[in-house]
Amino acid sequence: MLLLFLSYTYLLICYAVYLADAAAGKTIFLLSGQSNMSGRGGVVNSTWDGYIPPESSTNPAILRLTANLTWERAAEPLHRDIDVAKDSNIGVVGLVPCAIGGTNISQWIRGGDLYKQMMKRAEAAVKGGGIIRGLLWYQGESDTLTLDDAKAYKSRLRRFFCDVRTDLHLPFLPIVQVALASKVGPYTNMVREAQLGMKLVNLRTVDAMGLSMQQPENLHLTTKSQVSLGKMLVSSFLQMCLQNHL
């Protein structure tokens, strides 16, 4: 499985926003949600084609937190042991993969296994030095299957974001979420409306609708689309930071 999240985007973020903080330790990003966050580009019939675009080449200044809570150089597949179901002036970037495919937002509530695992990984990430600078969130396909889940999605998602900020003691943590690109269930539009209509301080939503999807499943983004989405996330994150002087 291709677990593609764009090492160069985080270098751009650090360079543009956090250059002055480079000596303070790692700039850390939590990557959470379900399968389109962990990435399925290049996967056909459960087999990954092995292609890694230049934008996702390894870099000694970009690390990932493993399932064993240790840092190693980030390389694809980025979520390989999580989702099993350089410019020297920039400093070190720490990516914390947390996404699990096929998960409903109700499985990410405070106190649940996925939430506790994400918090455990976040805490481990900062122990060696560094600051959590943002949460990237891509989830919601599993909530389009029933009317009850779709109706509850907005309130559940809002509570999740607020709980994460509270438990990380980062009340203004920047969050960039992705509005769904795929139409899995009959209530996709309702979940998308909830995502696009979410209003919180330091929250931005990028819309993945229109990006190309893996065929014939029409569920996961292609590798090319993941690269495009990475650029969208960078642009949204930088605009938020610049506008709010983060």
UniProtKB/TrEMBL annotation:
Protein name: Uncharacterized protein
Organism the protein comes from: Cichorium intybus (Chicory)
Lineage: Eukaryota, Viridiplantae, Streptophyta, Embryophyta, Tracheophyta
